Structures are given as structure tokens and as C-alpha cells.
């Protein structure tokens, strides 16, 4: 009996294939997806992992057996699947494990218009149905099963993105792009074709075994090749995508990583220029600079929990034009409130190409404060260690505490957030301050308690 509690996460399905799940389970997930969403038509895409085509096809068979017409768009990035869900106005399923190692695979699901499916929005119900069917046997096919068709939406996806950011008059730029053998190698050539860019491709070969490095550009170890190539070739910037190419990280002309918060602030300013007075969502781990820039450009910043389901829900509630996370996920009203690293990359290219300064000088206005980055601590008692940290700061008159997402402690010159991981025995610490010495001081204070 498969243990679905191990593979059904907060926002998606993810686990080792075939040890934890396989095509038989994918078939049941497809049937349950149609049952819970009530869809009469769905769209399915998959990444380049060896197990992805078979899992996607099995999911489609399960969906068709429950009466849904299935459109298979084949190889795609996650944001390309979101495009298809939005443009075709039907629920979607993307087969990917993002940046996880090759033996993993998963499903990111959405309702029509790329609306998220998470634990509170249908995923728990899908899991319960699959568990019942595993025990009792799969349901009978409906009298009229759905049909299956193939459709290529890559050109339409690229055209939509390029309709949102005008790069026609920018100065010519040299950009190194590291696709990490992931889906960026599939989407980047089409999206950037014909623009005034000299693209230097790194690891564009689709290879779900990730022979060059893990496709997780948030980890500094995985952008070393990109940084070296940018410096060696005198490129204007570098872009790095994760395995399913929904996240994009940026490197400046010196080979220095540009913080995701600085990218979020830059994009927010540009979106506010198009939609004056708009609302911008930022999670509570993004830099102080993000709400500051939003206010400076006449917008309204709204702080929310970490995670795409929270960001998307808040965007829908507030009518926000843009949302940014510290993890290099960027969300756009003009993209069905879904996240697309490719659109954020186009904004960075446009902002750089519309003026003459190098990227390091351009982003300096948006990168204002030293930060620790995410520091993970393995602990036996997440709740107990977090409570000890809370107790250490609870009676201090110079700080405020809130528990919107984990524990956030804020002083005049610094803040930190301590959050438990949902999937691992970890506490995640993020710190920002007005100077580096204070970052280091608070880091040592908090870690002494967490790791005691």
C-alpha cells in the first residue's frame, strides 16, 4: 500500500519513482483530479525527467476514463503549463519535481485559469479519493470517455510573454543563460528569439539526470558555472533557471548574485509604472526594500505568508498587479496571478537595456540592506526550539513579535524570521539589518538558542 502522506505535500505531489509512486498511482490521480475539479477538459504537460512522459500519459488516461477531454502539450516549463491553463481556461497538471534529484517526480495541479490546487483547495480531497480507490479498487470508466489530443503551445506562450514587456528598442545585450539541463533549454530559445540579445547558452540539453549541476539556482553552488562564464565573456548579465523553469535567478556583470528581493523590487517598480497605484504582494521574508520601493512608486504593499497558494490567494483578493517571493518566484496579474520566472527575466532585460548603466549599478537602488540568506538548522524538536527563541525575545521592549508565518521579530534596525520546514526536521532562519555586523550578531544570538 503506498503511503500518500509521504508524497502529497502542501502544494503538490512529489516523491521517488517508482519506490513511492508510479504510473498506476498517476492514473488514479488523473481520475481523482477530474472527479474533484468537475472538469470536462484538462491540459497536461511534463518536464524532461525520464519518468515524466509515462506518468503524464497515465494521468491523462485516468482523466479521460472519467469523461474529461485531455489536451497534452508535451514538454514544457511549469509556467508554460500555467499559460495553457489560463489561455484555454481549463484545469491543468504539470509533471515535474522542479529542482529535486532525477529519481523524484511530482505533479503540480491547478484549476482553470491557473488557480492553485493545494491542501485547502482540493489536494487533500484528491488524496483522500486516491487512497480510497487504492484500497477498494479503481472506479469504472464512464460511459463516454474523453478524447486525447496533442497541442503545441510554446509559440503562443512566448508571444504572450513578449506582449507584456517591450524589448524592441533596448540596447544590444550579451546574456549568459544557464538552463541546468532543465526546461529553460526548451523555452528560452523561443522566448528570446529575434530580440536584440546575444544569448550564450549553458546546459541547454534536456537531461533529467542533471549531469552538470543540480537545477536549483537558489543554492550558490549551482551558479558557479554561470558566474564564471559571465566574467570570462564580459557578458552584461546571467540568468539561471531551475528544473521546471518557473524560477529565475540573476547574476550581474561582475558575476555577483542579485538578490531575489532586489529583482522583485525592480519588477514591482516597472509594473507600477504600467498600473499606477496598484497593490503588490510580498512575502514576509522579502527585504524591507520591497515595500519601500512599492510605496516610493505610489503602490500599496501587502505582506503575506510564504508559499504560492498564499501569494495567489492574496493577489486574487486584493487585485494585486504583482507578487514577489525571496525564493525567486514572481507572480503577475497579467499571467493569471501565476508565477513565471521568464516574465521576470524579460523585465530585468528591458530595465537594463533601456539605459546605459551596468546591472550592478541599476539594482543598487533596490538592494539596500545586508541579509543572512536562509540558514537551515536540523533540530529534533522544531516546536520546542522555536518556543525557546520566542521566549528569549518576548519581554524585550525594543522589538515586536508576530506569528503570521513562524516567528518574526522586528526591531528598528533589524528583523528575523524563524520558520519550521513542512517536510523536514528543519528550522529556517532569515535575517536582515541595516549593517552587516548586526546581521552577524543577531544570527549568532538566534542560532545559539536554536542549536543549543
UniProtKB/TrEMBL annotation:
Keyword line: Isomerase, Magnesium, Metal-binding, Phosphoprotein
Domain Alpha-D-phosphohexomutase C-terminal: 374-447
Cofactor: Mg(2+)
Domain Alpha-D-phosphohexomutase alpha/beta/alpha: 6-132, 155-255, 266-369
Source organism superkingdom: Bacteria
Coiled coil spans: none
Family to which this protein belongs: Belongs to the phosphohexose mutase family.
Name this polypeptide is given: Phosphomannomutase/phosphoglucomutase
Amino acid at each position: 500500500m503506498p503511503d500518500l502522506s509521504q508524497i502529497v505535500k502542501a502544494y503538490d505531489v512529489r516523491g521517488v519513482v517508482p519506490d513511492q509512486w508510479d504510473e498506476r498511482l498517476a492514473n488514479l490521480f488523473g481520475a481523482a483530479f477530474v472527479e474533484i475539479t468537475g472538469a470536462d477538459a484538462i491540459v497536461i504537460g511534463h518536464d524532461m525527467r525520464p519518468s515524466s512522459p509515462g506518468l503524464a500519459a497515465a494521468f491523462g488516461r485516468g482523466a479521460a476514463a472519467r469523461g474529461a477531454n485531455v489536451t497534452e502539450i508535451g514538454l514544457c516549463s511549469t509556467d508554460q503549463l500555467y499559460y495553457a491553463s489560463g489561455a484555454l481556461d481549463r484545469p491543468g497538471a504539470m509533471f515535474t519535481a522542479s529542482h529535486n534529484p532525477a529519481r523524484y517526480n511530482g505533479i503540480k495541479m491547478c484549476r482553470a485559469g491557473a488557480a492553485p490546487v493545494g491542501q485547502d483547495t482540493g489536494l487533500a480531497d484528491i488524496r483522500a479519493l486516491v487512497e480510497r480507490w487504492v484500497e477498494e479498487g479503481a472506479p469504472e470508466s464512464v460511459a463516454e470517455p474523453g478524447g486525447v489530443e496533442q497541442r503545441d503551445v510554446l509559440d503562443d506562450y512566448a508571444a504572450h510573454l513578449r506582449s507584456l514587456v517591450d524589448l524592441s528598442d533596448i540596447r544590444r545585450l550579451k546574456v549568459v543563460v544557464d538552463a541546468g539541463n532543465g526546461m529553460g533549454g526548451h523555452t528560452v530559445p523561443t522566448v528570446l528569439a529575434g530580440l536584440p540579445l546575444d544569448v550564450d547558452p549553458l546546459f541547454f540539453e534536456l537531461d533529467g539526470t542533471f549531469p552538470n549541476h543540480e537545477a536549483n539556482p537558489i543554492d550558490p553552488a549551482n551558479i558557479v558555472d554561470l558566474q564564471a562564464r559571465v566574467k570570462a565573456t564580459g557578458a552584461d548579465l546571467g540568468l539561471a533557471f531551475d528544473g521546471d523553469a518557473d524560477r529565475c535567478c540573476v547574476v550581474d556583470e561582475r558575476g555577483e548574485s542579485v538578490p531575489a528581493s532586489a529583482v522583485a523590487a525592480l519588477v514591482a517598480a516597472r509594473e507600477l509604472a504600467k498600473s499606477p497605484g496598484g497593490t503588490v504582494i510580498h512575502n514576509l521574508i522579502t527585504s524591507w526594500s520591497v515595500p519601500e520601493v512599492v510605496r516610493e512608486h505610489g503602490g500599496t504593499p501587502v505582506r503575506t505568508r510564504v508559499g504560492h497558494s498564499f501569494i495567489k490567494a492574496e493577489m486574487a483578493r486584493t487585485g494585486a498587479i504583482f507578487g514577489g517571493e525571496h525564493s525567486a518566484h514572481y507572480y503577475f496579474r497579467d499571467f493569471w496571478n501565476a508565477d513565471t520566472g521568464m516574465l521576470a527575466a524579460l523585465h530585468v532585460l528591458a530595465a537594463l537595456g533601456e539605459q546605459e548603466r551596468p546591472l550592478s549599478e541599476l539594482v543598487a537602488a533596490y538592494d539596500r540592506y545586508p541579509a543572512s540568506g536562509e540558514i537551515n538548522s536540523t533540530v529534533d524538536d522544531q516546536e520546542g526550539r522555536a518556543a525557546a527563541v520566542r521566549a528569549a525575545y518576548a519581554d524585550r521592549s525594543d522589538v515586536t513579535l508576530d506569528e503570521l508565518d513562524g516567528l518574526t521579530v522586528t526591531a528598528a534596525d533589524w528583523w528575523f524570521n524563524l520558520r519550521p520546514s513542512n517536510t523536514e526536521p528543519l528550522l529556517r532562519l532569515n535575517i536582515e539589518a541595516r549593517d552587516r555586523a548586526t546581521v552577524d550578531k543577531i544570527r549568532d544570538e538566534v542560532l545559539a538558542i536554536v542549536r543549543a
